[in-house]
Records
---
Amino acid sequence: MANHASALKRMRQTQKRRARNRHYRSSMRTQIKKVRAAVEAGDHETASQELNAAVAVIQRLAGKKIIHPRNASRKVSRLYAAVNGLKASE
């Protein structure tokens, strides 16, 4: 357990940031699941709308350094590939 005031403050800040980052990551995962569900259902219209929302969330998190920029790029690329693959199969 920390004894210095600065260490206690650092612990409080870390806890707040961790909770906030977990919330953001959770919402990102939910958005990705919505895209995947639309692709599984074969609904291109819904999938493309959900894709736009998911990409916005992912890019925002990468900009805030909550996820690594390359991780964000990989996620976006795979989502686009899934949605475009759905379009090609129609």
---
Amino acid sequence: MSQVPIRSMTGFARLTGVAPGNTTFALTLKSVNHRYLDLQFYLPNGMDAIEIQWRKAIKEHVVRGHVEVRLSLQRETATPTPQYNPATIKAYIDAFRVASSEHNLRGVQPDLNAALCLPGVWSMENSRPEEDEQSGIELAAAAVLRPALESLNTMRSQEGRALAEELEQILLRLQEHVAELSSLRAGMQQAQTERLDQKMREMLGDTFNLDRDRILQEAALLAERSDIEEELARLRAHIDQFLRLLQQGGELGKKLDFMLQEMTREANTTLSKTGSIALRSLRITELGLAMKSEIEKAREQVQNLE
């Protein structure tokens, strides 16, 4: 639909990998709506240093949205092997011999089974060293960050295309409402003039006929001030520009939101100017409310665009 992708702020990506030492990791990116770019990191202990580098990389791919960056690890540890502490055993034997000598006990030997049951004799050690493991994980995870961001943006672009198509349909319906309202404009002016003429007769009675032309001129001026042609012209211009921007694509969220605010203002003014006439034409009221409804639908969708 457009040369430059239109992206939603909603997206998800998850990539996995294996770092040196058989450590499995998963990098998850999740983005939702936000007024600005808001990054939230959930990293394993001791890996906070990579946040600064990753922030820079993410800003090159994502302009707006709340993005959660989550890195989880699963280490495959080797089977631990029991190790005894020789120093503790030697200390026990030495103490046994000293006690035997002090009490003149000959021929008594220390009990090895009892020594091996002493606290601190045994320890469980991992047979695999973990030196430099963290740096290896950081490098491996950094290698999948860019593909994860590209996957995230692929999903955001798909969502964006769907939103753009929906917005185009909404604006085309709005365009039809404006066109029909414009076709009713001449009748509105006539109705406004007749209404003012009637009020003048009710207020002035016979005096009205004394200076009828002058009073009708004033009535015509009042009717002109309540004319909605300027509002309809601005609405048509806003709609045309909105549709052109959708065709161009790119980062449109804030621009389109501002334009819809302007359309809301014009629609409200149109309704206020035709309020008294609407009592005589239900269709005018229906069109005014339909315009506001379509604009509100468009604003809800635009809130999701980057």
---
Amino acid sequence: MTQTSRRTLLAASAAATLAAPHVARAQAPIRWRMITSWTKNLPGPGVSAERLAQRINKMSGGRMQVEVFAAGSIVPAFGVFEAISTGVAEMGHTASFFWDGKMPGAALFTTAPFGLPSVEHQTWIEQRGGQQLWDEFYRPAGVRGLLAGNTGPSMGGWFRKAITSVDDLKGLRIRVQGLGGEVYKELGATPQSIPPGDILPALERGTIDAVELLAPVNDQPLGFQKYAPIYHMPGFNKPNGAAEALLSIPAFEKLPDDLRAIVETACAAEHNAGLVEAQASNAQAIVELVAAGAKVTAFPPDVIAAMRAKTHVVLDRKASESAFAARIVGSYRAAIGAGRNWASIEAYMAQVLRQA
């Protein structure tokens, strides 16, 4: 080997050695932590969080690794938004109504009493300006919200005694989240904000009289029927059960374009997956709950009428709390109006086509 060839070989070897650490760093996966408001694998939202992380990991070919942390393991269930905003974690999975007390109007990005059902809610977000409002609303906190799971319509909740009149609501201690809690308060009840993992102990101890959580498949494993067997319907408080993925904007903007698209696409896919899973699972769960002692009972018409009337009061008050809340409520109500005629036709067709 000539001296020139030897120099060339040594130079190439040195260059490869120097480059290796940079190659290794480039191939190291981007690691995100996803904090949630749910107990691990809670049917519905807890399962959605796990599945969302797995979807991102797989779609990215391992270039991105998202690890899920249940409520309380890093921050409490109701501390997810603040934690994402302050950089404690890069991603969260939760529900927007948890922040409505501090951010009036946030609840509507999940649901509202007597509001949009699941498909119409998604239509508002994706087709009628809801996502743009959502982005603008959260941006000052350095956070972005995306639809990322759906438990579908909820039931009215579990009660120790049947509600037979509006008077039965007075003094009722009910665990309830979202704007429905304000509706119950207007009707004389005492709403309680309790994380999902702490509800059953509160019911067992008798510190609450009723529980509104989600739908049959989400309620079933918690055994509420043992202490409060009356399962009221309809779920006026949550006609839709949209979960939100919270993204740290600084962390999201550091991702390359293809990984950003993967995160967004995975969230959209999980929203649809959660909804169809809920539809299938609730059909089975309600049968099993009745067999286990649940007594499915409709709220009386006068109670529904009173709840509906107070919902208008609550939404009007919510709109008065800030200029941005007024924009959100106005946009949400406009979406209800825009979809009302077709929704009525759909409901009629479903009723006719399902008749035996």
